[in-house]
Amino acid sequence: MSERRPQVPAERLVAEMVPPPRFDSVRFATYVPDASQPSQTEAVRVLSDFASGLGGGATAVGGGVKRWFRKAPAAPAGPRGVYLDGGYGVGKTHLLASLWHATPAAPQLKAFGTFVELTNLVGALGFQQTVATLSGHRLLCIDEFELDDPGDTVLVSTLLGRLVDAGVALAATSNTLPGKLGEGRFAAADFLREIQGLSARFRPLRIDGEDYRHRGLPQAPAPFSTETVTRVAHTTPGATLDAFPALLEHLASVHPSRYGAMTDDVAAVCLTGVKEVPDQSTALRLVVLADRLYDREVPVLASGLPFDAIFSGEMLAGGYRKKYFRAISRLTALARDAGPLAAARG
């Protein structure tokens, strides 16, 4: 991984605005609500109805290959967006991807991406071209709306205003602002305030619950020995092998928009010498990499500290705590996925 410096053309950024591999096959029917959390069942119902209401819209016109589209009449008044408010691990991304799949429109008329991927698209295409590219869509899903970046939040808020005016329906999940220590309790109000004039277009949808990735599961697996990690890396086709400090240093030299491309054709990530992350900038880069690995279902085999010990107590008590807990949750899940690799190679 530390030797990879991928170049990602703008057209790839557009083409990849679909649910990532981990969420390619999810549907509302595959979401398993926690029986003790009725808001989860209610979320499925509300989002199913929302998807059904997005039928019709842009239609192909003309003969031959259907490439030209005419926008439908203006949508009826009322919320044209939904915001999923909840802690990490309650299945917000699963539900957002399910909404994308359930919306009755051709794939090229729907877009799905993280907030970071959307800002990267604006950077690659320019603001006006991004508006033109997305204005013909029926639905734009934005995962992990980054409320902790005021500049980018205003940029995307302006973009969303233009898209709503063009008839695009919106759906989003987000993180809390720095200093907001509630487990998602303040997210909805912050989101609606930060997107300014779009507030009336969104219906906040609260989803309560605990992290499904660890619901009823044993404690996170213990790290492996350096010898085991190295052996698995050398005997697994497509596996990478990196010293954890070297990987963290490398991430600083690669734009986060390219972290997904860094994982192309990677079957497993093997890390030696995992230790506490030294500073917040490095920690936030690691969060992005963890998200991309999780999206692509790449198992992670590691030696050193367990993943629940890589962020300092100060970081876990600070304004970015939700990101760090999400990263711990996802890296722990990927560590579990790596268990069979170690077992198979003795």
From TrEMBL:
Keyword hit for Transcription regulation = no
Give the GO biological process terms: cell division
Which keywords fit this entry according to its UniProt record? ATP-binding, Cell cycle, Cell division, Nucleotide-binding
Q: Which domain of life is it from?
A: Bacteria
| Official protein name in the record | Cell division protein ZapE
**Name of the gene this protein is made from:** zapE
